[in-house]
Write a structure and sequence with these properties.
The structure is a homodimer of 278-residue chains. With 278 residues, the first copy, chain A, is an alpha/beta fold. Chain A is built from ten helices and twelve strands. Chain A has two domains: 111 residues, Ribosomal protein L30/S12 (60s Ribosomal Protein L30, Chain: A); 156 residues, SPOUT methyltransferase, trefoil knot domain (Alpha/beta knot, 3-Layer(aba) Sandwich). Helices cover 33% and strands 20% of the residues of chain A.
């Protein structure tokens, strides 16, 4: 095995924590670097398998054979090799540095951030769409992506997102479903216009809504909108064509965690609509 | 205004970051200190109002008048004063240190951790109980507490908890509902025995369950059990008298975030049972 500086083909080992590729990878933890490069970092084998499976462009990967333990990790590596991705062998110390040591599964990849423009989103007939406005916490965003995946939503739109959707913490909290979701980011104005143009009914989660979600018809072409952790939905979601709905709040608090509320609403819509015919 | 060292009654200002009370308060961020003292720290005005409203013993509080902005914060202070709690006036720098500067609302309190022994938990007829086993992340625990509060659960039992329930991050993520919940911690064995003794049917969330939760009767005296983020429920929850249920998983992932799953199941039970008569 030769050192990375040899420049020739074949297996090459990166041993230095100061290697420029390592430093560039670590820098992708910062939003500025992701915005500048259009790249993000994927650690977690399942996350990586899902990114590759969804056709995400992988720029390069870092693998530490000594840490590759799980079947998921071997599957991730196999997927990379099949895609002819440049894979750098690295030492455990280098991998720990890139993966932040938190959940090092032996493989980390740098991928191109997918295009999330609203114009690219295509809906099937009778779609079920989720909209989350100004959600801030990567953990909440990741959990919402998992719920959208599980409940079989046809699209998820992040209106005025306060965190970048491919933040490594979102990738992780979403278990990689951020790559497989039909996902868009747009302004609230664009989102509302887009939903109306397509004839979707819009229901909006509001704590003061007169109607319970479970007593509201959630069938047909539908969008379900939820607001941020602190502020809820912005005033434009009170338009006359938007149906406010609420969940029972039987205790002392007046709201749920936004990811919990999203899960309940997405699954209530799914329950009413029945399971899709596949 | 006199210095805290004067020792006499009346308004006293703590100005030093090295004041022993300040140091003791900051130390309550660590589990060891909470376990040793039986105390925890509450920052956040709404959280404090809920703790006081639930009859939690407040040992002392720290207030910075200059930072007291919200109505919630004034209400918290009024509740403390009514309870004849020793309130120390502090400088903004001292309050920031105690409150970790994250959401300083001008008031932080040291409270006695409530007794969470299972023996103290009393159930109404036809109870709805949540059980979460080995849940680890304070954010998930807090969100689950909010969902249990909202869905009107009669009790929540943390089986084999991996985080202490009155961790300041749980208090915060729960918006203080950790104080108002009928909450117990116990081993899984004790929990199962306790539920069976009381004649509760037990349903357990399992990804491989044959039956959907929405097609399962969730009425009557019932416990709904969910497992940890990584491992799910332990094998004892596969006993013949436990009914496994699942949610539809229509995407690529095989599970939801545990707090999302708890919210969907608690609210599905609530939907089936109807709103309680008050």
């Amino acid at each position: 095995m030769r050192d990375a500086s040899s420049g020739s083909s074949g297996p090459v080992m990166i041993t230095s924590l100061h290697n420029p590729r390592v430093i560039a990878a670590v820098r992708l933890r910062e939003r500025r670097s992701r915005d500048e490069t259009g790249l993000t970092i994927v650690d977690g084998a399942r996350e990586l398998v899902r990114a590759v499976g969804a056709g995400t462009t992988v720029e390069e990967a870092f693998v530490c054979e000594a840490l590759l333990r799980s079947d998921d990790a071997r599957a991730a590596l196999a997927a990379l090799e099949q895609g002819r991705v440049r894979v750098w062998q690295v030492t455990p110390a280098v991998l720990d540095k890139i993966a932040f040591g938190e959940r090092a599964e032996g493989v980390v990849a740098i991928v191109r951030i997918p295009d999330t423009s609203l114009g690219r989103l295509h809906l099937p007939p009778h779609p079920l769409v989720g909209v989350i406005e100004a959600v801030e916490k990567p953990g909440n965003l990741g959990a919402i992506l998992r719920s959208a995946d599980g409940a079989g939503l046809d699209a998820l739109i992040a209106a005025e997102p306060r965190t970048d959707l491919f933040n490594p913490n979102v990738i992780r909290a979403s278990l990689g479903t951020v790559f497989t979701a039909r996902l868009a980011a747009a302004s609230t104005t664009e989102t509302l216009a887009w939903l109306r143009d397509r004839g979707l009914r819009i229901v909006a989660a509001r704590v003061d809504a007169p109607q319970l979600a479970s007593e509201t018809d959630l069938g047909g072409p539908l969008a379900i909108a939820l607001g941020s952790e602190v502020e809820g939905l912005s005033p434009v979601w009170s338009a006359p064509d938007v149906v406010p709905v609420r969940l029972p709040m039987l205790g002392v608090a007046d709201s749920l965690n936004v990811a919990a509320a999203a899960a309940v609403l997405f699954y209530e819509a799914r329950r009413q609509r029945g399971l899709p015919v596949r």
